[in-house]
Each structure stands twice: as structure tokens, then as C-alpha cells.
Amino acid sequence: MVFSVPESLPWTIVLFFVGLVLICIAGDKFVDAAVAIAKRLKIPEIVVGATIVSLGTTLPEILVSTTAAVGSAQSPEIAVGNALGSIICNTALIAGVGQLIRPTRDVKKSSVRWRMLFFVATAVLLFASVLMSSGRSVGRVIGVVLVLGFCLYAFLSIKLKDSDGEAEYDENEKVMPLWAAFLMLVISAAALFVGANLLVENGQLLAERLGVPDRVIAVTFIALGTSLPELVTTISSAVKGQGDVGLGNIIGANLFNILLVIGLPATITGHVAFTNKALFLDLPLALLVMCALILPMLIRKKGSRIQGAILVLGYIGYCVYSFITKGA
Question: What percent of the chain has pLDDT over 90?
């Protein structure tokens, strides 16, 4: 991990909550900055959410998984478990909570559709490559392909225009200067980075004292901890009526979790191992919850609280199952 923390129980608890508070404050400012950039540049909010916001809120997962894969003291299960667990958490819990608070309205179908297809194609490629590999792992070649996939996704997000219409903003609305918005974005991303790592490191220490296996820690505790920036961003966006930022953030973050959180460690180390549970439970479930979130929105052009409730209950069931089976 990046931060060295004292292992005494009081300090562990204190630093855990420091990280939580830091994430909450930074997440709120991150949304404000991203929306200001979208308004200044007349970019649809979902595009900003699916690129700038997603990259910023996925930094904790990238750090944790790369460190876990490279560091000799870390379990290799943490890299994959964190990536897939974060996708499930982002989609079922975080997006579900967002729909419960304020269902998404007037979904930009063209922007969502191609990103969803990109995610499905990437997930299928990952599943097939691991299934056909000799050691049930992602090698350096596939890792490079995933990183290049990130570059392609970023290019398409910038190049493609939203065919459902240009962004419409109130010309008389007071918006912070562009330079100030970018500065706030960078500072908020750095604060999210620090806060998430404080929370994850100290949260993992608490979990390990309870004797929880590495995979279960990764797909639940660490995944939830590193997904807190997405949670705060989604809730803040929903409360402020900027649901497209939250939805775009979830879709983009899920793509980044496969392309970068798995792709970078595989490119660096040449070997990121998958357990049978990760391959046959976590990855298919990640794809399933994404379909459950996005497909109804593409059909109805809006989300619903029932959809949110189903996703949240599904996530609770997944966590309970993971702890009962203890990652076996």
C-alpha cells in the first residue's frame, strides 16, 4: 500500500474515519468541478462523467490492484477481486442507491449504448482469454490489449458527439472559471486518492483481525472502500439533479476497472491470476448487474426505484454469500 499506518487499534479506527470524511468532502467538490467543466465547454454531462470523473474515482482501484499484483506481500487475488468486486459494487450498490434517491431521467441512449457495448465486448474478451489460458490468468499480451482498449475508449469518448442532442445549459447561470474548475478537479482527485487509501488500508487491518480470507476482503471490503468515491459522486450527483454525471461515472468506472485495474498489473507483471470463483461467479455477475442497470434504461430512457431496490438487494445477497462461503 502507499501509506504506512500504525497498527494499534485506536489509530486504525481514527484513520479509517479520516479517510471516510476526506472522501465525502472531496467527492462533493469533484462533482461540482466536473459539472462546471461540462458547462464551460458545453460538453454533455454524461461524457464528463464517463471520462474525467470516472478516471478520478477509479484511481484508488488502480493503485490497490497494481500494488497488490506487484508487491510480494500482497495476495494476487486482491487485484482481480478488487476490480470485479468494484464493478459489482458500483453497479448493484452505488447505482442502485442512486436510483433509489432520484431515478435517472431522459437517458442519453446513444452515449450509454456504445459504452455498454464496449463494456460487454471487453468483459467477454477477458472471460475468453482467461478461460483459454493455461494458468487461468491474464498475461502481458492481454494486459497490453486492455490498456490499449482504455486509450480507444478515451479517444471515442472525446471524438463521438452525443446524437441525442447537444448539452443545454442556462446561459445566465453563474459558473466557476474553467481554470478554477480544473484546479478543483485535480485537488479533489488527489484528496479522493489519499482518503480512499487511508480507508482501505485501515479497513483491511480491521477485516484481517476478523480472519476474513483475501478474496472476500477484496470483493467486499476493499471493493467497497475503493468504490466510495463513486458512491459519493453518484449520491451527490443525484441530490443535485445531475444524474447523468453519476450514471456516466458508473459506466466509465466499470470499464476502467477492467481496462486499467486488471490491464495495468497484467502489463507490468505479465501474470494476474483468476480463481474459479472470480472467473465463474464474479465476472459473470459483473456483466449481469450491468445489464440489469443499463438495458431497462435503454428501453425506457429512464431508471426506476424498483430497479434500484432490486440491485441493492442483489448486492447484499452477494456479500452475504461471499462471507458464508468464505471465498471457497
Answer: 22
